[in-house]
Design a protein that fits this description.
The chain is mainly alpha-helical. It has one domain. The chain has a two-stranded antiparallel ribbon. The chain is elongated, with a radius of gyration of 25 Å. The two termini are 36 Å apart.
Length: 163
């Protein structure tokens, strides 16, 4: 379906009929599953577990995450934890490093900046899939094609041809 991305009914400001609102609310309910398995995996580092619990708690207020999100959420939290560790390491050692070649030693960008960038990409991809940003949450609603009513003039013309 072309056009704008669909909004959740509760925050939609467009004028749609009561029946359309009811239909869309039913569609949104069908997309939700249980949440009982949303526990931090044991392999996550402590900081990752903290982030996991924070996201699950915050997302519970709007019923955003469910059991199928566990894998993406675990990857997100692991990447977040690693990102924080790499960032702290860069803070301690500085943004520049030294590289030695056969002929010389020269200053270069710290190699951990590349690692940090990879974690940022992983965090952004997972957070988009999980809907952790408001704009991403709006994209998670699967649009369905709503039937359009035929133009009254066309209906009148058809009835005249048949009659």
């Amino acid at each position: 379906m072309a056009g704008r991305t669909r909004k959740v009914v509760d925050i939609s400001t467009g004028k749609i009929g009561k029946q359309a609102i009811k239909n869309r609310q039913e569609q949104e309910k069908k997309l939700k599953l249980g949440r009982e398995q949303l526990n931090a995996p044991s392999w996550l580092p402590d900081l990752g577990k903290e982030e996991f619990e924070r996201v699950v708690t915050e997302a519970a207020e709007i019923n955003l995450l469910d059991n199928l999100d566990l894998g993406f959420l675990a990857i997100y939290c692991n990447a977040y934890s690693c990102y924080v560790n790499v960032t702290e390491n860069i803070k301690k050692t500085g943004y520049l490093g030294f590289r030695t070649t056969a002929n010389d030693e020269y200053e270069t960008v710290h190699p951990l900046l590349i690692v940090q960038e990879k974690y940022i990409k992983q965090i952004m991809q997972c957070s988009t899939k999980l809907g952790l940003a408001t704009t991403d949450r709006l994209k998670l609603i699967v649009p369905t094609k709503e039937e359009t009513k035929e133009n009254k003039f066309i209906e009148l013309m058809k009835s005249r041809k048949q009659g």
